[in-house]
Structures are given as structure tokens and as C-alpha cells.
């Protein structure tokens, strides 16, 4: 059990990991991430990479929606932008992977700023509809700008090559995606230790008084849109390297709702919530598939019902968490930690 | 362009009439949306899916149980009202005191649940509704209007007229308007506010179901027909979220616009056109053409 | 006591409001109001409900665009300066209905007060390196020393604002305004809804702030006891016009003021408990 910690300086109090225990846990987590490929293979590696890509994207949406309070129904469109950018650059010009990813993020960020512009005049739900409109328009561009996007057939993506290594499989791609994910999450965490992050939260909580204390809504809303889309763009770029083909239907409207659900279920406005949410929501369909396989001997048609059941479960998760646990999995996690911090004494 | 080669006046008039037909259905669905928004300030993103549920329930009664139209439709409206009430009671009311964004997200979850349920029961296959409207085409001057389009326009118009009358004169409609203006005041003069909320969802579900049946009778039904709701959002935002008249006018306009754009440029440009209009309206006049402009209080 | 580093307290500002008019639709909220707030003074703006006090506040802080009139800070015309830029000029305000960021801790709320004075950008922030790190550390130190200690908020610094009692929330809002290093502090009903004890606590805090920080204070308040106790100068509004101004003693004996508050039924139907 642990009662409290005495800090010697404000610096220690402002650190990401405030106690030795936390630092140890983080080291253990990193060790697991490094060791994972040596114990897992095949499908489990694929899943791990997919989870991490979704963590990056969800963290991005969390910055915009969870922290800044601007609901976006078009997040997947920014992933698509990133994916197309990577496919275009690597496919046509054979540019280096890291450059492509930065370009994917920047491309998405630039369009993100454009889409964010209406947020200066319109708020909340109107803005959500505007992002939906932007996503529809982007989808139209992907489908019809055939010379660049390949139209309905889409674009094939070459294997990611980095320092002479071909990252053709999930096993190898892991070593690209994992460090980027860790970096993306840590950067996001840093953001909310500073004035920029505080400004985001202030805009979410009360935009009028944010303005009175000197926060430029224009600057920070657009910054939030840019960052969020940058994350989505990078995630989309990695997605392209994983699936090796990008089509207009690769990122449908439901994908945007998937990320929104991940933010809600994980816990809006907490970094760890984004991680939990993305992981959980990515694994739910897998769990459903697994249980369908288990019951197939008794119920041969089970696999037909996976798709609709998945939709229902998604919907119920969104609704259920909003009603019963609005702070999401992050809050459940906090309660568990609190329980063990005081264990064996009851609280 | 080849598309424009055989364009003549009759063609344009027929396209316009067809567009107004679709527009009337958008307007009707828009009215369902507005009723909910007026009473509860909830932006219901699942309006298209509520429409879809109505259409499938009707399909169940008319095709599944082989009931005649005059029986299937009232039963559909009844079931839809129950569904609307259940949604309000279980998902919306627990969150009404929270911020509007939560409720909005709940309706997103609701879309997913409704689509899943329809696919679970009826699969994702598109289906056709049994014919129940007269088949002879209507001629307006020389222009031909397909029978289904014409009759569904008339039914939709009747539906909207009923809603307008209800809001203007009937006691329940007045209570709804009072609640929309000021919840606390409405409750203090003895209006049962939770009752009004539930009632508005039930009415909206019935109106949406009627729209669903009509949309389905023209174009068939499928689990993705809720996408019709996308155009409906454009309609209600252009018209103003809390204005039935706005939904009516904007519905007809957007329906007409989509038809014309589809005819002149091709179907894939329809959504592009409507959503561009949407962005324009959002930026220039966010509260819509007929909506109430709410002044922000400190 | 004053140190000559970044913590040097700002110099009190003079605020001059001239001929301010404001209209909502057909309603005149303010009609040619003038007001002179001397540097380092505590000036109160009082008047019955609907007299236009909060409208005047909003116009001075740049939230409403006045129809006519000018607002000058130390002789500089700031009428056209947008609200968010006034923070940097040293104009800080609190709100009638507490306008804190409810999801954040007391400490973060107070830190936000200094937002306009900090410079680190997104890239600094993401990497928490160099400027961002330096600024954040310095900010934390200053706030702990100048604001949290000063207003005795040590025990609640990591508590989310939403769960604090009303009186403390008002105090945190004052703290946030102080963190803005104001030269003039505008308080909108700082003690509304407080009990006797909380009111006295807040009144003391306001006097301390003026004395120790040397800022000018302009406040709107209904609590006449408190206003008369701490104000140097009082300006009385009624129906959007200034009907009197002067020391507490002068105002108290002014005929127009008495009439406005007690009301001859026909003219001023709203009676305010003074």
C-alpha cells in the first residue's frame, strides 16, 4: 500500500511519471513491446500492428474531440488522405518511408486546417455535421480524381523499405509502427503538460472565458485540427503499408464512427483512454469472430451473423459507456489502481 | 456532353418533378427530425435509421404477414411509436441533463444498433416493398410523373400538413412548443415535460416510419437506406433545425437540386452538391434559413 | 518587497470610460456612461437589477461592441482591441456566473491565467523541450509563490474545480485573474451568493490584492455593506445611465440614488434590497 509521495521540486511534480513505481511500470511496458514479436506471430502480429495504428489515430481524434471538444465525424477521411499520400509518393516516386509518413501527416494536417475553418463560426453539433460534409466531399475526390487516386480501383502500395530492410509482413512492420506509436503517445502526453494543451481543454470547457483570458480560438482550434489530422494522416500512412492497397472504400464513414467510439469507450480527454479505447474496439470484432468459431459446431450459421452483431455491439458500447461510464475505460482503470494502491485496506 | 445532348424542356420539367417528389420525402423525414429537436434539443443523427426501421417493420407486416396496406400501415406506425418511446426512455432521457454532445453521440450509437438489428432480422439484402399505390402514371401537362413519386408526394404533403396543424392548434402540440421555448417555465405551468419528450420521440418515429414506407415504395428498402438521412441533415440545417416550414422548403429545394445535378452531371455529384450547399450555409448562416438564432449568454 | 525580475508586480492602470452606449435591438442597455477609475483605487459599479452594470463590464472587457464611446487604458484607446488581446494589456476579469474550466484542476485553471504571457508553441509543447520546459517550470514557481500561497489555495491545488464549494470557486477565479498579472482587475459580483464569512474573506482578499499587488480594482456588486466598506469610489447606474458618482458617503446620501433603490413606484418598480 502507498499513502502519498513527497516531491522535492515542482519539476518532479510536473513530470509525466511522478513516482518510481510509474517509471518501473513504463519500463515493463516497453520491455513487453520489445519482446512481443519474439513470442507472437502471424495473425497476432497483424493484430498488434493494427491496434497500434488505431492507437495513433484514436489519440489524434482524442486531441480534437476529447481534449478540445470539437466533435469530428470525418476522422477516417484524414486517415484516407494519409494513406493515399503514402501510396502516391511511394508508388510513383519511391520516396523514403519516413518522409512519406511525415508527408502523409502534413497533407492531412493541411486539409484538416481547412476543414477546421468553419469551427470558428459554428460549434458543437453543427461542426460535427460540417466535418461529415468534408468527409463526403473528400470521398468524392478520392473516387473521381482518377489520375492521382486511381479512382475506384485505388492504388497499390509498395513494401515499406527502411535502411535497406523490406518490411513486407506485419512481423517486420511492427518495428516501424511500434516506435512511432510510443513516440506519438508520449508527444501527445507532453502537449497536455503545457500552455498549448491547457488552451485546448479551456476551449472545450468554456470557450467564451478562454477567449477572455487571452486564448485565440482561431489559432488553437486550427492547431487542434491540424494535430489531430496529422496523427490520422500518419496512422493512415502506416495502414497503407500494412494493407498494401488503398481504395475509396478503405475508410468509410463507419470508420470515423469507430474512432469516435474508441475515444468514448476509452475515456475522452485522457491519453490512456485513447490507448484503451483503440485496443478494446479493435479486439471486440476479433472476440466476436472467435466466439462465432466456438459456437459453429452447434450453430452452423453463426458466422453470418457476425457483421450485424458487431454493429449492435458497437452501438451498445457507445450508448452504454455514455450512459453508465462516461469517463470510459480510463476511469475504470483509475478505480482499479486506487483499489490496489490502498489495498489491503478497504476504501 | 452526351448527357446534355437530348436535354429538352419536358426532360427538365420531369426531372424537377421527380426531384420535388424525393424532396417531399426529405421534407417529411426532416419534419421528424425537427419535432425531436424542437422539444428536446437533441440532434438525432439516427433519423435515417429510424426511417429505415419503419420501412422494414412495414415490410414485415405487408410482405411477411401478407397484411393489406390499410392494416399494415397503422400497425407500422404503432410499432414505430413504441420503438421511438423506448429509445427516448432508455437512451436519451438518462443523458438529457448532460451536455448535448453526449446525447448526439448516443444517437450515433443508435444508428449502429438499428442497422445491426435490421441486418440480423432481414439480412443486408435489398428488398422490394409490396405495391400498394396506384400504378397509372400521372401527367402534368406533357410531363410524366411516375405514379409512386406522385402519390408519395401527396401522402408526404398530407403528413406535413397534419404536423403543421398539430403544432399550431392541438393542445399536445402547443405543450411541445412551450417546452421547446422554456423547459422550466413549461414545467411550472403544469406541462409534463418528460411526457412531452417521450411524446415527441414517438411522433417523430411515426413520421419517420411513414417517410420510410414511402421512400421504400419508390426505391426499395435495404439496411443502408438510412443514408437518405445524410440528405435530410442537409435539409434541416439549411432550413433551420427548429423550423418545420424550413424543413419543408429546404426539403423540396434539396430534392430538386439533387435531381437536377444528377440529371446534368451524373449521380455521383448529388451528395457533392448537397454537401457543398451545406458547408456554405453552415459558414454563412449557421442557424439556417428559418431557424431561431440563439444569442449566446455569458 | 518588490523584486526586479519577472515577478515584478505590474503597475496599476487608469481606466477611463467615456460616453459608452450599448444597444440590444431596440433596448438601450447603456446610455452615455462615463467612468474614471483612478490607478490603485477600488471602484464599485452599483445599481438596481437591469441597470446595465454587467453590460458595462462586458463592453469594457471587449465582449460587447459599444455603439458609441471609448475605453482607455492609461490613456490608450482600446475600444477596438478584441477581448482576447486585452488580457495581455493587463485587463483581467471574473464573471458573475463562475467561468472556470470545470474539468481542470485548480492549478491548471490558475496557470491558464498566464496563457497570454507565455510563448511556447506547439512544437515546443510536443517535445516538452527547451522553451516549453523552461516556461512551464518558471510558471509553476511563480504561481505557487504569488498566487497559490497568497490566496491560501495550497490544499486544493490538484482538486478539479467542479467539486469545490461555491465560495472557493469564486476565489479560484480571482486567483486565475491574478495570474494574468493584471494592471486592472474587474470583478463581476465577487461575493454574490456567499455567506457572511465567505464574503468577509473575499473582501479581505480584494483589499490585500490591491495593497500588495498594487492593481486597480473595478467591481460590480450587490452587497452594499461590502461595497461601502472597501470602495474608494462608487459609480451608480440606473436604466443604463450614470445617476451618481463619488465616495461611499456621498453616494449614500445622494437623493437620486436613494430614489433609484427604494423607488417611487412609478419610475423604478424594481426594488433592490440594499
Short description:
The complex is a heterotrimer of chains A (347), B (298) and C (274). Chain A is mostly helical and 347 residues long.
Give an overview in words.
The complex is a heterotrimer of chains A (347), B (298) and C (274). Chain A is built from 15 helices and four strands. Chain A is mainly alpha-helical. A two-stranded antiparallel sheet of chain A has the order 1-4. In chain A, 49% of the residues are buried. Chain B is mostly helical and 298 residues long. The longest helix of chain B is centred in the first third of the chain and has 32 residues, at 9-40. Chain B is 73% helix and 2% strand. Chain B has a domain at 24-121 and 131-226. With 274 residues, chain C is α/β, with parallel strands linked by helices. Chain C is built from ten helices and ten strands. Chain C has helices at 53-60, 83-89, 106-113, 122-127, 131-148, 166-179, 196-213, 224-230, 248-252, 255-262, and strands spanning 15-24, 27-37, 42-46, 68-73, 76-77, 91-93, 184-188, 216-220, 233-238, 241-246.
Provide key terms for this protein.
heterotrimer; B: 298 residues; mainly alpha; two-stranded antiparallel ribbon; 2 strands; C: 274 residues; alpha/beta; Rossmann fold; 2 domains; four-stranded antiparallel beta sheet; 10 strands; globular; disordered N terminus; disordered C terminus
Amino acid at each position: 500500500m502507498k499513502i502519498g509521495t513527497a516531491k522535492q521540486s515542482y519539476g518532479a511534480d510536473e513530470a509525466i511519471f511522478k513516482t518510481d513505481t510509474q517509471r518501473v511500470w513504463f519500463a515493463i511496458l516497453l520491455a513487453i513491446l520489445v519482446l512481443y514479436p519474439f513470442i507472437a506471430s502471424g495473425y497476432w502480429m497483424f493484430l498488434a500492428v493494427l491496434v497500434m495504428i488505431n492507437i495513433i489515430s484514436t489519440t489524434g481524434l482524442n486531441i480534437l474531440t476529447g481534449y478540445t471538444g470539437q466533435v469530428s465525424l470525418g476522422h477516417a477521411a484524414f486517415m484516407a488522405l494519409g494513406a493515399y499520400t503514402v501510396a502516391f509518393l511511394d508508388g510513383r516516386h519511391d520516396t523514403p518511408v519516413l518522409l512519406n509518413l511525415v508527408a502523409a501527416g502534413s497533407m492531412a494536417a493541411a486539409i484538416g486546417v481547412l476543414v477546421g475553418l468553419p469551427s470558428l463560426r459554428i460549434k458543437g453539433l453543427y461542426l460535427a455535421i460540417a466535418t461529415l460534409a468534408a468527409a463526403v466531399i473528400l470521398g468524392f475526390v478520392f473516387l473521381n480524381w482518377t489520375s492521382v487516386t486511381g479512382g475506384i480501383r485505388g492504388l497499390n502500395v509498395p513494401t515499406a523499405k527502411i535502411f535497406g530492410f523490406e518490411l513486407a509482413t506485419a512481423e517486420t512492420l511492427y518495428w516501424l509502427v511500434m516506435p512511432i506509436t510510443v513516440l506519438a503517445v508520449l508527444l501527445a502526453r507532453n502537449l497536455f503538460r503545457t500552455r498549448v494543451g491547457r488552451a485546448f481543454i479551456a476551449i472545450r470547457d468554456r470557450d467564451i472565458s478562454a477567449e477572455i483570458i487571452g486564448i485565440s480560438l482561431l489559432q488553437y482550434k486550427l492547431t487542434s485540427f491540424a494535430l489531430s489530422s496529422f496523427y490520422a494522416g500518419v496512422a493512415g500512412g502506416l495502414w497503407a503499408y500494412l494493407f498494401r492497397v488503398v481504395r475509396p472504400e478503405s475508410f468509410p464513414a463507419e470508420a470515423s464512427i469507430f474512432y469516435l467510439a474508441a475515444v468514448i469507450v476509452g475515456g475522452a480527454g485522457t491519453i490512456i483512454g485513447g490507448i484503451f479505447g483503440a485496443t478494446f474496439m479493435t479486439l471486440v470484432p476479433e472476440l466476436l469472430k472467435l466466439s462465432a468459431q466456438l459456437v459453429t459446431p452447434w450453430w452452423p450459421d453463426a458466422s453470418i451473423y457476425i457483421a450485424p452483431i458487431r454493429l449492435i455491439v458497437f452501438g451498445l458500447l457507445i450508448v452504454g459507456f455514455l450512459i453508465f461510464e462516461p469517463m470510459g475505460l480510463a476511469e475504470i482503470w483509475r478505480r482499479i489502481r486506487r483499489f490496489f494502491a490502498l489495498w489491503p485496506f478497504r476504501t | 456532353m452526351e448527357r446534355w445532348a437530348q436535354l429538352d424542356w419536358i426532360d427538365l420539367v420531369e426531372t424537377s418533378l421527380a426531384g420535388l417528389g424525393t424532396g417531399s420525402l426529405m421534407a417529411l423525414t426532416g419534419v421528424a427530425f425537427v419535432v425531436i429537436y424542437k422539444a428536446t434539443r437533441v440532434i438525432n443523427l439516427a433519423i435515417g435509421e429510424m426511417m429505415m426501421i419503419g420501412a422494414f417493420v412495414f415490410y414485415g407486416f405487408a410482405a411477411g404477414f401478407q397484411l393489406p396496406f390499410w392494416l399494415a400501415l397503422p400497425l407500422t406506425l404503432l410499432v414505430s411509436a413504441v420503438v421511438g418511446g423506448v429509445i427516448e426512455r432508455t437512451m436519451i432521457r438518462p443523458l438529457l441533463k448532460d451536455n448535448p454532445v453526449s446525447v448526439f453521440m448516443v444517437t450515433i450509437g443508435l444508428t449502429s444498433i438499428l442497422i445491426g438489428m435490421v441486418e440480423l432480422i432481414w439480412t443486408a439484402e435489398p428488398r422490394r416493398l409490396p405495391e400498394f399505390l396506384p400504378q397509372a402514371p400521372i401527367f402534368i401537362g406533357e410531363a410524366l410523373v411516375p405514379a409512386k413519386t406522385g402519390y408519395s408526394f401527396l401522402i408526404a404533403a398530407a403528413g406535413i400538413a397534419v404536423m403543421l396543424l398539430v403544432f399550431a392548434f392541438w393542445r399536445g402540440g402547443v405543450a411541445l412548443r412551450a417546452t421547446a421555448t422554456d423547459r422550466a417555465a413549461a414545467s411550472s405551468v403544469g406541462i409534463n415535460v418528460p411526457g412531452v419528450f417521450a411524446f415527441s420521440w414517438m411522433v417523430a418515429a411515426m413520421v419517420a416510419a411513414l417517410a420510410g414506407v414511402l421512400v421504400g415504395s419508390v426505391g426499395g428498402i435495404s439496411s443502408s437506406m438510412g443514408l437518405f438521412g445524410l440528405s435530410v441533415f442537409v435539409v434541416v440545417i439549411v432550413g433551420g433545425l427548429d423550423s418545420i416550414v424550413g424543413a419543408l422548403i429546404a426539403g423540396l429545394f434539396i430534392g430538386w437540386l439533387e435531381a437536377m445535378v444528377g440529371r446534368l452531371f451524373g449521380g455521383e455529384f448529388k451528395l457533392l452538391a448537397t454537401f457543398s450547399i451545406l458547408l456554405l450555409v453552415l459558414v454563412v448562416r449557421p442557424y439556417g434559413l428559418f431557424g431561431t438564432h440563439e444569442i449566446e449568454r455569458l | 518587497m518588490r523584486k526586479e525580475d519577472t515577478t515584478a508586480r505590474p503597475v496599476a492602470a487608469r481606466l477611463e470610460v467615456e460616453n459608452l452606449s450599448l444597444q440590444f435591438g431596440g433596448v438601450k442597455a447603456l446610455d452615455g456612461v462615463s467612468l474614471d477609475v483612478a490607478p490603485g483605487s477600488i471602484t464599485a459599479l452599483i445599481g438596481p437589477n437591469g441597470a446595465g452594470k454587467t453590460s458595462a463590464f462586458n463592453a469594457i472587457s471587449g465582449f460587447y461592441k459599444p455603439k458609441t464611446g471609448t475605453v482607455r487604458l492609461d490613456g490608450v484607446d482600446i475600444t477596438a482591441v478584441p477581448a482576447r488581446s486585452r488580457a495581455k494589456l493587463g485587463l483581467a476579469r471574473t464573471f458573475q456566473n463562475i467561468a472556470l474550466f470545470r474539468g481542470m484542476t485548480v492549478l491548471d485553471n490558475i496557470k491558464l491565467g498566464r496563457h497570454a504571457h507565455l510563448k511556447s508553441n506547439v512544437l515546443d509543447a510536443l517535445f516538452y523541450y527547451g522553451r516549453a520546459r523552461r516556461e512551464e517550470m518558471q510558471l509553476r514557481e511563480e504561481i505557487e509563490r504569488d498566487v497559490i500561497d497568497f490566496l491560501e489555495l495550497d490544499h486544493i491545488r490538484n482538486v478539479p474545480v467542479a467539486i469545490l464549494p461555491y465560495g472557493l470557486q469564486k476565489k479560484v477565479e480571482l486567483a486565475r485573474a491574478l495570474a494574468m498579472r493584471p494592471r486592472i482587475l474587474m470583478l463581476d459580483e465577487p461575493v454574490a451568493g456567499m455567506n457572511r464569512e465567505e464574503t468577509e474573506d473575499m473582501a479581505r482578499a480584494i483589499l490585500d490584492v490591491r495593497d500588495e499587488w498594487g492593481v486597480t480594482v473595478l467591481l460590480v456588486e450587490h452587497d452594499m455593506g461590502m461595497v461601502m466598506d472597501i470602495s474608494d469610489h462608487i459609480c451608480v447606474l440606473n436604466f443604463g445611465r450614470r445617476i451618481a458618482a463619488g465616495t461611499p458617503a456621498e453616494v449614500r446620501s445622494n437623493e437620486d440614488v436613494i430614489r433609484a433603490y427604494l423607488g417611487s413606484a412609478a419610475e423604478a418598480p424594481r426594488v433592490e434590497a440594499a
